[in-house]
Amino acid sequence: MTYNDSFIRACRKQPTDHVPVWYMRQAGRYDPDYRVIKEKFSLLEICRQPELAAEVTLMPVKKLGVDAAILYSDIMNPVASLGVDFDIVKNIGPVIENPIRTAADVDRLKPIDVEGDLGHILETIRILDKQLEVPLITFAGAPFTIASYLIEGRPSKNYIRTKELMYSQPQVWEKLMDKLGDMVIAYLRSHVKSGGKAFQLFDSWVGALAPRDFEIYVLPTITRIFAELSELDVPKIYFPGVSSGELLPSLRKLQADVIGIDWRVSITEGRRRTGGGFAVQGNLDPLLLTAPMELLKERAKDLIDEGILEPGYIFNLGHGLFPEASLDKLRGLTEFIHEYSRKVMQK
Ligand code: CP3
């Protein structure tokens, strides 16, 4: 087996013989074998066992035949090193006992010590680097998305406390963004040093902001993160999450290679709004996996036809896979993407 670098090439807008595909949340509960492991260990327990975390990362690569692996971890893992206690609670998500809500809370956050506190994650990356025949994508949560958990203490619909802090204590907010920005930079740098071949910054919930507030309160930190990491010779992806279409024009100057877009904006429109310089990744509605196979293929075909109009297209969903997705359909979809795109790209 030779190394499949189609994902890296597409990120760099270089020619490929097929459209590369991976799925956000490709390791997860839709897979019965994953559910068996989850009966024994929690997500955090899996992450603390590098051999097991590597195995879970490899499961969807083997079963689905995707063109990239994504490290099995969670966006919350690095905040443990800042001194924040959290848990990932079944059917809820990240929960924080003592949310961060005051200047003193922000002051107490320690600088990240990746080697000292998160060595198990680096070890997982090193194990995978030896075994994989496709690139390993590592990731971090972006400062707004992480802050929303730290401040709300759990997943939120309206981000009331987050926005309250942002609007009413802008200096505290800025300090928090600075500290989380530093965390992300050190964390992703050590991923690449350990063998990560690309990374994605997940800003899953930043679409809750108006474009003006995004530019004032968040974009400076995102810009700094990509600028400071620009010396790393790996593709860099920014995923501004759900309902982020109106934020896309603000991203034009980012030193990223790829922008992930959700399904509310077309690939063509996503390219236009971001200025045409980036590769794009996305953007099938994950709930299309509930549709009959014929409709799913029809939509995938249309997406590929549109994506390959310009160099630099990576097939993905517009957001993560959900637990009810079917392994068979995902396998069929992946095969279809490979076969169909191979046919039309060789014409
Ligand atoms: O993509 C992958 O396969 C890699 C693994 C991965 C996980 N979390 C494992 C996980 C990735 C990339 C993440 C990122 C993550 N975590 C994000 C950004 C991506 C996105 O979906 O927008 C966010 C917002 C989180 C925070 C988080 N962790 C939530 C909201 C939940 C869901 C709670 C639930 O039970 O549905 C989690 C838990 C989590 N992280 C699961 C997995 C596989 C599901 C629960 C489990 O299997 O224990």
TrEMBL record:
<protein>
    <recommendedName>
        <fullName>Uroporphyrinogen decarboxylase</fullName>
        <ecNumber>4.1.1.37</ecNumber>
    </recommendedName>
</protein>
<comment type="pathway">
    <text>Porphyrin-containing compound metabolism; protoporphyrin-IX biosynthesis; coproporphyrinogen-III from 5-aminolevulinate: step 4/4.</text>
</comment>
<comment type="function">
    <text>Catalyzes the decarboxylation of four acetate groups of uroporphyrinogen-III to yield coproporphyrinogen-III.</text>
</comment>
<dbReference type="GO" id="GO:0005829">
    <property type="term" value="C:cytosol"/>
</dbReference>
<feature type="binding site">
    <location>
        <position position="319"/>
    </location>
    <ligand>
        <name>substrate</name>
    </ligand>
</feature>
<keyword id="KW-0963">Cytoplasm</keyword>
<dbReference type="GO" id="GO:0004853">
    <property type="term" value="F:uroporphyrinogen decarboxylase activity"/>
</dbReference>
<dbReference type="InterPro" id="IPR038071">
    <property type="entry name" value="UROD/MetE-like_sf"/>
</dbReference>
<dbReference type="InterPro" id="IPR000257">
    <property type="entry name" value="Uroporphyrinogen_deCOase"/>
</dbReference>
<keyword id="KW-0210">Decarboxylase</keyword>
<dbReference type="GO" id="GO:0006782">
    <property type="term" value="P:protoporphyrinogen IX biosynthetic process"/>
</dbReference>
<feature type="site" description="Transition state stabilizer">
    <location>
        <position position="74"/>
    </location>
</feature>
<keyword id="KW-0627">Porphyrin biosynthesis</keyword>
<comment type="subunit">
    <text>Homodimer.</text>
</comment>
<keyword id="KW-0456">Lyase</keyword>
<feature type="binding site">
    <location>
        <position position="149"/>
    </location>
    <ligand>
        <name>substrate</name>
    </ligand>
</feature>
<dbReference type="Pfam" id="PF01208">
    <property type="entry name" value="URO-D"/>
</dbReference>
<feature type="binding site">
    <location>
        <position position="204"/>
    </location>
    <ligand>
        <name>substrate</name>
    </ligand>
</feature>
<comment type="similarity">
    <text>Belongs to the uroporphyrinogen decarboxylase family.</text>
</comment>
<feature type="binding site">
    <location>
        <position position="74"/>
    </location>
    <ligand>
        <name>substrate</name>
    </ligand>
</feature>
<dbReference type="InterPro" id="IPR006361">
    <property type="entry name" value="Uroporphyrinogen_deCO2ase_HemE"/>
</dbReference>
<feature type="binding site">
    <location>
        <begin position="25"/>
        <end position="29"/>
    </location>
    <ligand>
        <name>substrate</name>
    </ligand>
</feature>
<feature type="domain" description="Uroporphyrinogen decarboxylase (URO-D)">
    <location>
        <begin position="20"/>
        <end position="29"/>
    </location>
</feature>
